[in-house]
Amino acid sequence: MTQMRKFEQEAIATEIYEKIQETNSVVQKELEQTKKYKDIQAVVDELADLDKQSQELNKAMTNTRDIIGKLVKEFNDNISKNDFELTTVSRYYNGSGQLSWIDNEWKVKQDIERKLAIALYHLIGKINYQLSLMILLVNLVFKNCSPLLQIWVLRIK
Q1: What is the pTM of this model?
Q2: 102: CB partners within 8 A, 6+ apart
Q3: Three-class SS of residue 88?
Q4: pLDDT tens for residues 122-144?
Q5: DSSP labels for 97-149?
Q6: pLDDT, position 37
Q7: 85: Cβ contacts below 8 Å, ≥ 6 apart
Q8: Fewest Cβ atoms closer than 10 Å to its Cβ: which of 31, 32, 94, 135?
Q9: Is the separation of the CB atoms in 86 and 101 below 8 Å?
Q10: Based on the number of CB atoms within 10 Å of its own CB, is 68 exposed (0-12), middle (13-18) or buried (19 or more)?
């Protein structure tokens, strides 16, 4: 008995597979005409329509978020003298959002620090000036007083 070669086995398998495919194609076309298949296809088509609507809604929501962002920015630019600003909080899970106020803590603290630095600078300048005058005055008095008083002052230090 002769043994079948590999390429002959592959040729026979391919031929059988092609016949099965032809039969499957005919059966599939017949099944596509059934009511159950048509009902399933209707639901698939409905899902495709919903997906299209969802994409359109997402696009509209994105555009609306952009508009809100621009409006909030313009609003905040007009009230920039305040220590707070308006912001939006988006809720992506349910698609809604809300407006809220936030404090510009960094801005307020920066202004306070600047004003405090200026006030301290002037205060330290005044203290240094007054201290310099006092030292000058003490030196003048010290130089003009008697030697005994100078010795007594030096002992106090």
Answers
A1: 0.50
A2: 84, 85, 87
A3: strand
A4: 878 788 778 887 777 777 776 77
A5: EEEEEEE-HHHHHHHHHHHHHHHHHHHHHHHHHHHHHHHHHHHHHHHHS-HHH
A6: 95
A7: 76, 79, 101, 102, 104
A8: 94
A9: yes
A10: middle
